[in-house]
Design goal:
single chain, 292 residues, alpha+beta, Immunoglobulin-like, Hypothetical Protein Pfu-838710-001, 6-stranded antiparallel sheet, 8 helices, 20 strands, 22% helix, globular, disordered N terminus, disordered C terminus, magnesium, cytoplasm
């Protein structure tokens, strides 16, 4: 039995007919794990987890609640043990995500296989996402490369934390609602009908929406596939009208490692015939199906 943890999914390895996972990140509701065809491995995607918080989980294997004794545990209220995703240290939290987005050719799957990238999901059907994007009438968020979305029941905000001379943008993603609201109060300094700044009255995301400060501008249903080779992750998203966007990502510990990671990302993109994404063109591809 082995448990492997990364930022995208949780894996279970062991002989079983049915495996489910339940934890703080599922509100303790049992969620089916998928068997990777031809193996005894099971997998479940997980939402973005706050790295400065502790998360608990457990497996339901063939109807029996179990934990992995080789991984960190803590007692629960029933007197048994839960597995724990421990809070990361400040040095671990400060890992830098280097990524670039690209237009993806229709033949990307064969190119991925040819260059040794493996589909990490192993699902009979793709991971499905439903994203609703919000911004002000003047697109105050998008102008600053901030992306606010409601994804499968959770708020997420992705935003840049620096731009390296190589051209790579360093991003951070948070699902902490308080953090999101504090940034909205700064980025959207509009006034409501009573000419009162939102920062004095809008204390949650719902306030921004109810007072018509934030509006839905796009709703996307996306099929997502994950690929991996060594320390490189590639995610390919295909919208319900067939538009494909790929993201090549590497994680490094120091800013000094960013240039080399950026060069490697560009090299991989050339091998896979990925073309640099034009953000203006991409935005039109996102919004036009909603507006028509």
């Amino acid at each position: 039995m082995e448990l492997i943890m990364n930022t995208r999914a949780i894996y279970w390895k062991g002989n079983a007919k049915d495996v489910k996972i339940s934890g703080t990140f599922t509100n303790w509701k049992s969620k089916d794990m998928k068997n990777i065809s031809g193996t005894d491995s099971w997998i479940s995607p997980v939402p973005f987890l706050s790295e400065d918080e502790e998360h608990e989980y457990k497996f339901l294997v063939d109807g029996n609640w179990i934990h992995d004794p080789d991984k960190p545990t803590k007692p629960n209220s029933l007197g048994t043990l839960n597995n724990v995703i421990e809070r990361k240290t400040p040095s671990e939290v400060s890992m830098i995500e280097v990524e670039r987005k690209f237009n993806v050719p229709d033949c990307y799957e064969s190119l991925m296989e040819r260059h040794g990238f493996k589909n990490m999901m192993g699902f009979e059907r793709d991971e499905e996402l439903c994203d609703i994007y919000y911004d002000s009438d003047r697109y105050d968020l998008m102008k600053e490369d901030y992306w606010l979305r409601w994804r499968n029941g959770d708020w997420e905000l992705k935003y840049p934390v620096g731009v390296h001379p190589t051209g790579s943008t360093l991003y951070h993603e948070t699902s902490n609602v308080r953090d999101i609201v504090s940034k909205l109060q700064i980025l959207i300094p509009q006034k409501n009908n009573q000419s009162v700044r939102n920062s004095t009255i809008f204390n949650n995301i719902g306030d921004f929406i109810c007072n018509q400060i934030l509006h839905k501008f796009a709703e996307l249903k996306t099929k997502r596939r994950h690929y991996q080779k060594d320390n490189v992750n590639i995610v390919v998203d295909e919208t319900n009208w067939g538009y494909k966007v790929g993201e090549i990502e590497m994680v490094v510990k120091e800013k000094s490692e960013v240039p080399e990671a950026s060069k490697k990302i560009d090299s991989i993109a050339r091998q896979l015939n990925f073309k640099k994404l034009n953000l203006t063109f991409a935005a039109s591809k996102i919004t036009s199906p909603i507006e028509n």
